Amino acid sequence: MAARGVNVSLPWLRTLWQNLVREQQQGTLAHAHCIPWQPDLGTAALVDEWIKLLLCTQSQKRACGQCKSCLLHQAGNHPDFYRLGSVDGKVISVDQVRELLAKLQQTPNQAGAKVVWLQDAEKLSVTAANALLKTLEEPTRATYFIVTPERTERLLPTLRSRMQLQRIPQPGAEEVAQWLAQRLQRVLTAEEQNYCQRYADRPLALLQWAESGDYPSDDLAELNESFTAGAALPALTKTNWQGWLLATEQWLQMLIRLQQNVAVTQLQLPQQRESVENWLRQHNYQVTELSSWLQLCYAIRQRTNEQSGLNGPLLLKELWMRWL
Ligand SMILES: [Zn+2]
């Protein structure tokens, strides 16, 4: 179930949603779609709203919510809506797929579309995936497949190539901050602004954290531990390194502020002040040096934005090695 007020009017969903609606109205909508499952970007809301729209017999830009088809779906027993997914993380078997395909052969009862929501598609066995291929290519009339894998790269290429990829575009930090302030109906704190920078790809998680006041473990604190207390360095991957780059920038900014004797209340890790100061003294790092490293961080960000094929995780790791 989508969270309160989370629907296709989320700003970063709008363009994708409008395209889907337009293609449906023009009769050019493909029959099979792959939407990578990204819960913190609102995939659930998008899929939910889209299934309703496809099933509705009076639909314009949104499902009407009043026709027989809409009422059946709301009651959870629309005969033309099928959901297939892994049970307890198990493989989706060829028998499950065959059973689904047999049901699809029957005429639609409600004169609307038939919609299949296939979850965890990466869990399809090879034979199950192969059994689906032909139907994806030549589906029965007005039948739509919405496939939402958690690991899109694990789908068989033959399966992937038969679907239209509908990727939710990742919003920018600025857009996320604006949206979050609007949702919370107040100005964001400096810390919340920081979180928007670090987690722009997870806006719904940000909203949940801000509403509950319960934030996840802090990258900045973890990085600080690695350098000043000899804890293991975080493992950098293609998907997480930009978050760590940001944490590195914040950490260097904090060190610079410490060297400039900024008041404790303005520091991000006030409890660690003493250990960090000891570490700085030990290595005799001065503001000029710290600033030049901060410039290196900005340069890494800029270069990896401008040139594809650069190894961001490696560049950041090399920078970290200077401080061990
Ligand atoms: Zn309707």
TrEMBL record:
EC number from the UniProt entry: 2.7.7.7
The keyword Nucleus is assigned to this record: no
Keyword RNA-binding applies: no
InterPro entries to which the protein is assigned, alphabetical: DNA_Rep/Repair_Clamp_Loader, P-loop_NTPase
SUPFAM superfamilies (UniProt xref): P-loop containing nucleoside triphosphate hydrolases
One biological process term in Gene Ontology: DNA-templated DNA replication
Catalysed reactions, as listed in the record: DNA(n) + a 2'-deoxyribonucleoside 5'-triphosphate = DNA(n+1) + diphosphate
Coiled coil region boundaries: none
Stated name of the protein: DNA-directed DNA polymerase
GO cellular component term, pick one: DNA polymerase III complex
Organism this protein belongs to: Pseudidiomarina insulisalsae
Keywords noted in UniProt: DNA-directed DNA polymerase, Nucleotidyltransferase, Transferase
Signal peptide: none
An example Gene Ontology molecular-function term: DNA-directed DNA polymerase activity
Lineage: Bacteria, Pseudomonadati, Pseudomonadota, Gammaproteobacteria, Alteromonadales
Recorded superkingdom: Bacteria
Pfam hit, one: DNA_pol3_delta2
